[in-house]
Write a structure and sequence with these properties.
The protein is mainly alpha-helical. It contains 14 helices and 3 strands. The longest helix has 21 residues. Keywords: Glycoprotein, Golgi apparatus, Membrane, Transferase, Transmembrane, Transmembrane helix.
Amino acid sequence: MSGTSTQSGDVGRLGENDMAKISKYRMVSSMLIPIIGPAKSENLINHIKDPYSRWEDQFQCIFVHVPKAAGKAISRSLLDAPNGTGHNKLRCYERNRQKYDAYRKVSVVRNPWDRLVSAFFYLRSLDARSNGGAFFRRHIGSDVEFQTFIQRLENPDYRQTILEWEHFTPQKRFLVRRDGQLGVDFIARFESLPSDFETMKTMINPEASDLARVNASKRDSYENYYDESLKSIVRSAYAEDIDAFEYTF
């Protein structure tokens, strides 16, 4: 699972309960993928599992980790969570009203055109045995170029399938309450992260370490991947993010 894979050096910082949960989710995921596919498997497990971990409880903070928006770096630096806190939507945290009402809520969003480039190349780099790698190969194809992928998003059915995967899901859907309204106390921006992270530290953990750099990919600036036609397709596919967070290309 994308939210439960461990990196070398992190295992020693995870407790036995943490590792047991990871193993359980991996086992369930491996059983579900052949039946319902990697996207529905990932979304189902993220929906039914307890989104709270000891890091949220320690800092009384809900960090909504939007995929490909510096979430793992924030989790590690702000909450000292060695492997992040998972891609849990805000409405999943609402199930525990006592914690939800008491904890501060923060997140990070990113320019949709930029995030889409980052997500595409990140997923393409994953092993096919991972959920993300399996989804990419099944629905996009390891030999498909980015521009071709964007053109295919003009097909409504294909777009719906792609947006089910968490790395492609519009960011607003992670940050709304069950009533459909944005429910986060502070939304940082990837584009101004150094200064916004200082605000997060003041709110959540003044003793937090410097912002880590995690999962950064080496590629061209996102603007170089688009022409006017491709920009328009993304503008349509991610209209809810562009409107909610007032992004422009």
